[in-house]
Amino acid sequence: MLPVLVVHGGAGTIPKDRVEMSCAGVRAAARAGYAVLQRGRSMDAVVEAVTHMENNPAFNAGCGSVLNVKGEVEMDAIVMDGKTLASGAVSAVRNIANPAQLARLVMDKTSHLCLTAEGANQFARAMGVPEVPGESLITDYARMRWQLNLAPGANPVECQMGKMGTVGAVAVDADGNVACATSTGGILNKMEGRVGDTACIGCGGYADNRAGAVSPTGHGEAIMKVTLARLILFHMEQGLSSAEGSDLGLATMKERVGGALGGVVTVDPQGGWAARFTTNQMVWAAAQGDTLHYGLRPDEVLTQSLAPE
């Protein structure tokens, strides 16, 4: 059942007026990534899928990113190749439309795993990556949420409700090579310079041909405490399926980190896949064969043909 690609657009509670655009966004991203996957490598496919979501203001990545405490956009992204364990990441990067593509350049063009802040932007300029005005990455919705959460007495839990989602993709190609990519604007009203799970290998993503690939979403600090992506692959190395390993990893995070919730998309080298979450909702889509699977709520799996819409 190769190849297969699975994407997520974030776990949490999506405002009713943003549900359809989020669901449509992951379906479109899965189609775009799968078209690349059918012609080539899993790494190219996951970057394509994530780029598609970074360009969609429905999500907390790229042009829909949430704002930090100063009202500015700082983004994190990671990619990883399961064949070689090559990885690249950027953190707290500004004025870049597609951080996932910049993370890919870190992997391909440097000997480092992660570049941060101004160093990442200097590298982008050296690579000829165009910078965009910071304002072009800020949506009216993101600015509204930022202002609301600055209000005196704002509840820190409610501050994170209604935020758009981190985006991610995992894939296995026809040769059995897995890859992952994850991109985010982080958490609402974060401190300047905050780095979450997304840019950290083993937390915001991990890919290894010996086990599979994972892209998580949720509260970054909780994900980092259990190194969620690598934890799930550890369980899969012990013989659990993609779904079983994902469920066990998420249950461990919930148990060990104060009831923390989240979600993941996971694939194994044989084409088994899962989209699992402990939140009320997670938008996801999976392309395999001639069918697009997708869902929003727990245990919801809808399908449509992958023939052009």
Protein model, in words:
Substrate binds at residues 194-197, 217-220. It contains nine helices and 13 strands. The protein has 309 residues and is of the alpha+beta class. The protein has a single domain (4-305), classed as (Glycosyl)asparaginase (Glutamine Phosphoribosylpyrophosphate, subunit 1, domain 1), CATH 3.60.20. Strands 4-3-2-6-5-1-11-12-13 form a nine-stranded mixed β-sheet. Helix 1 runs antiparallel to helix 2 (42-54), helix 2 (42-54) runs antiparallel to helix 3 and helix 8 (228-237) crosses helix 9 (242-256). The relative contact order is 0.19. The mean pLDDT is 95.
Largest sheet: 9 strands, mixed
Structural class: alpha+beta
Which range best describes the helical content: under 10%, 10-25%, 25-40%, 40-55%, 55-70% or over 70%? 25-40%
Total domains, how many?
Answer: 1
Number of strands: 13
> What is the number of helical segments per DSSP (H or I, 4+ residues)?
9
* pLDDT averaged over residues: 95
Distance linking N and C termini: 23 Å
CATH second-level architecture: 4-Layer Sandwich
Regarding CATH, which class? Answer: Alpha Beta
Query: Gyration radius, to the nearest Å?
Result: 17 Å
- Overall, the morphology is globular
Q: DSSP strand (E) fraction?
A: 15-25%
Q: Would you give the CATH topology?
A: Glutamine Phosphoribosylpyrophosphate, subunit 1, domain 1
Work out the oligomeric state of the chains in this entry.
single chain
SSE order, one letter for each helix or strand: EHHEEHEHHHEEEEHHHEEEEE
What's the CATH H-level homologous superfamily?
Answer: (Glycosyl)asparaginase
Strand order of the largest sheet: 4-3-2-6-5-1-11-12-13
Stretches where pLDDT falls below 50 for ≥5 residues?
A: none
